[in-house]
Design brief:
The complex is a heterodimer of chains A (422) and B (287). Chain A is built from 16 helices and four strands. Chain A is mainly alpha-helical. Chain A has a domain of 161 residues: Cytochrome Bc1 Complex, Chain D, domain 2 (Orthogonal Bundle). In chain A, 45% of the residues are buried. Chain B has two domains: 132 residues, Sandwich (Immunoglobulin-like); 107 residues, Sandwich (Immunoglobulin-like). In chain B, the strands form five sheets. Chain B has a five-stranded antiparallel β-sheet, with no helix packed on it. In chain B, strands 11-12-13-17-16 form a five-stranded antiparallel β-sheet, with no helix packed on it. The chains are: A mainly alpha (422), B mainly beta (287). The interface between A and B is large, with 38 and 43 residues.
């Protein structure tokens, strides 16, 4: 056996030596290639990342109001409405700030109190299959309803939401969804919800008649569907990167005319090549919408966040999911839920790959704001070279500079329903 | 041939790692002494992550290495090092490996292929496990006039998934991207087609499988499983596809296929009809 071992390691050493010799003799194609010359396969990858590949907004079969402009206008008002909160100060826009790429600048978002995770970017969110960092919602409208009843976020109930709508938005609502009942303490409790973290609210909810609960749920769902109709319109516009891809496909090669700097192009080349960023950050939104545990440092004195693993049963049991009674979809139109991977072992501590569009505009980073700068993020990935899922090659400091420069080229103004957002 | 080459490369890497370790720690080979009535017998262990077992009559000690870390439903390879119970390698032994499912009382049609690598090392290819569950690998060693057996237990063999296939193999240069192939043991001919044209990354879509037997007759009542795997990254599909029998023309519909990374994917279709199991792996390059 030992004999064999020695022979084997000798052969391995010879292979390595041959490889080194080969590397010295062969300079590799990159050095001799012009900065702006891309192979046909690379061009195909560039096109797949370009905003041109985004296509029209995907239909949300679970929300029949998703492309209704009137619902979007109503949803926009709700998005900015502070009344939907326990202290009348928190709206969706508190953590999804218009002036901050529809997210906020905090490591952990703060509504009524500090939440365990960072606010998600909303840019291009309608193209996602799963919502929240852990994908515990399968539609934008059911996502929009989650924070309203979360004690740390808006901190109110669905009955209170119905009260607020009937008081301030009766006309808007009734034009879209039909007549609203009067909400008075005699017929509807103010603070009732099917909550496991609030016994009083749960008791009040259980004591309501099924008809009352149905009335409230219907209003609550319509509210979510309206907010979703607005949030769907928050979209990226062409970035410098997208204009560069156009130039490449138009055959432009004169360096002085190119919209990306040499450093940014070098970063792009790394992004789709050696650094393998497109393994997860692929497609026109630079995300595969899947969930990955990338081995981020754990916070001390805090129970580990189970991420996707804990969300699988949540989304399956959510009364507002695609297969539920409040969804407008035919069951056949819910493939993500139907074919959901239920292996919670695989998804332990896994979080959604976020879009990289406008990423430079919205530090800090990661699901709990673990890193303050893009540089820290890149340094982290470099430190994970031993993780096969994250092997980004042995990147030099200069290459990290180039990648960082490229990420800045993904910024663009944001389009949204009626250009003057607020 | 390619597959054999790959196994050898993996083996070299493993062994080189073992040799390097020897130098560092001088004596990574552990020798555990156990008392078994007839006197002391030794179990020699070369690798950290290996399984060791004494044969029933204490004649040999066996060390099993699974390059893919664990066995899974489908086609597997294991390496076995045979030692005399008193120590010392056993070359030129006759090794027979039989997969067995104790709860079902059946094995598989396919016979594992044993190749001696020298120095008491044998690689065992084509270890086919046709379903998930408790499997045994029964190993019979015959050397000169001595013969003995040992049984390795694998209580939880799973479908190839995230925790499996951490091989991180780069794609071979001349991958076969054919969409119609014979299964590994030529029992069936399988063709796949993506319904709706070209497969696009990050989109849930459906496949249509056409399965015929070796004589070209449609196979309409097979138990079919479909598993996707990314050998370079060691994980599978982000979905759990469902297979529906169409019931005619050897057609099966696979719903819920989704690829979330560009690059080399391997989709393995396993087919079982009347106890005859066979499987085929298709290579895909997702852009």
């Amino acid at each position: 056996m030992l004999n064999f071992l020695m022979r084997a390691s000798g052969a391995a050493a010879a292979t390595v030596l041959l490889f080194i010799l080969f590397s010295i003799v062969w300079p590799g194609p990159a050095l001799s290639m012009d900065q702006h010359t891309w192979s046909e396969q690379e061009k195909a990858v560039l096109r797949s990342l370009s905003i041109e590949a985004l296509g029209s907004l995907p239909v949300d079969p679970s929300n029949r109001y998703s492309d209704n402009p009137q619902a979007a206008a109503f949803g926009k008002k709700l998005f900015f409405e502070d009344h939907f909160s326990g202290n009348m100060k928190v709206s969706c826009a508190t953590c999804h700030r218009v002036d901050y790429s529809f997210t906020d600048n905090l490591p952990l978002s703060h509504g009524m109190d500090t939440t365990p995770r960072r606010s998600m970017p909303l840019i291009g969110v309608a193209y996602n299959s799963w919502f929240f960092w852990d994908g515990r919602s399968d539609s934008l409208w059911s996502q929009a309803l989650g924070p309203i009843e979360n004690k740390l976020e808006h901190g109110i109930s669905r009955t209170m939401s119905a009260y607020i709508i009937s008081k301030y938005y009766r006309k808007d609502y009734e034009e879209l969804f039909g007549p609203l009942p009067d909400f008075m303490e005699e017929n509807f409790p103010q603070n009732a919800r099917p909550a496991l973290d609030d016994p009083d609210a749960l008791k009040a909810w259980v004591l309501m008649t099924p008809e009352q609960r149905e009335v409230v749920n219907r209003i609550y769902v319509n509210m979510g569907k309206s907010i979703a109709a607005f949030v769907r319109t928050i979209l990226p516009q062409p970035s410098a990167f997208d204009r560069y891809v156009e130039q490449i496909h138009a055959g432009e090669t004169i360096p002085s005319r190119m919209v990306l700097t040499n450093e940014e192009v070098a970063g792009l080349r790394l992004f789709i090549g050696k650094a393998k960023c497109t393994n997860c950050h692929n497609g026109p939104l630079f995300t595969n919408s899947d969930f990955h545990n990338i081995g981020l440092p754990q916070k001390e004195n805090v129970a580990p966040d189970k991420g996707r693993a804990a969300a699988i049963t949540q989304v399956l049991s959510n009364e507002f999911n695609c297969l539920g009674q409040y969804s407008d979809a035919h069951p056949n139109d819910c493939p993500e839920l139907r074919f959901i991977d239920t292996s919670n072992k695989k998804y332990a501590g896994a979080f959604k790959t976020p879009t990289l569009r406008n990423v430079a505009e919205r530090p800090p980073y990661m699901h709990a704001g673990q890193f303050a700068t893009l540089r820290e993020v890149l340094e982290f990935y470099r430190s994970q070279a031993q993780n096969p899922e994250l092997s980004h090659g042995n990147l030099t400091d200069k290459e990290l500079d180039q990648l960082e420069a490229f990420l800045h080229a993904l910024s663009s103004p944001i389009a949204s329903f009626q250009a003057e957002v607020q | 041939m390619k597959r054999g080459l790959f196994v050898i490369v993996v083996l070299f890497l493993l062994l080189a790692g073992c040799a390097a370790k020897d130098e560092q720690t001088s004596g990574a080979m552990e020798e555990m002494t156990e008392s078994h009535g007839h006197g002391d017998v030794k179990i020699t262990k070369h690798f950290d992550e290996s399984l060791t077992m004494l044969t029933d009559k204490n004649l040999f000690s066996l060390e099993m290495v699974i390059p893919a870390k664990q066995l899974s439903m489908g086609v597997n390879t294991v390496e076995i090092i045979v030692h005399h119970a008193s120590g010392g390698d056993v070359p030129q032994a006759e090794l027979t490996v039989t997969p067995w499912m104790p709860s079902m009382g059946h094995g598989v049609m396919q016979k594992p292929v044993v190749t001696e690598r020298g120095g008491g090392l044998y690689s065992v290819d084509n270890v086919v496990l046709s379903m998930t569950g408790h499997w045994q690998l029964q190993v019979k060693v015959a050397k000169d006039d001595k013969e003995d057996t040992a049984v390795f237990n694998f209580p939880e063999v799973k479908a190839m998934g995230h925790e499996h296939a951490m091989m991180h193999a780069p794609p071979p240069k001349d991958l076969d991207y054919a969409t119609m192939k014979m299964t590994a043991n030529n029992a069936y001919n399988v063709m796949y087609k993506s319904i709706g044209g070209q497969i696009r990354i990050n989109r849930i879509h459906s496949w249509e499988l056409t399965i015929n037997d070796a004589a070209g007759q449609p196979v309409n009542d097979a138990m079919v499983t479909v598993v996707g795997d990314m050998p370079e990254h060691g994980h599978g599909l982000p979905t759990q596809p469902e297979i529906t029998k169409v019931g005619a023309g050897g057609l099966y519909r696979v719903d819920g296929m989704k690829f979330t990374m560009p690059g080399w994917w391997v989709v393995t279709v396993s087919i079982m009809v009347d106890g005859v199991h066979d499987s085929v792996s298709f290579n895909l390059n997702i852009l």
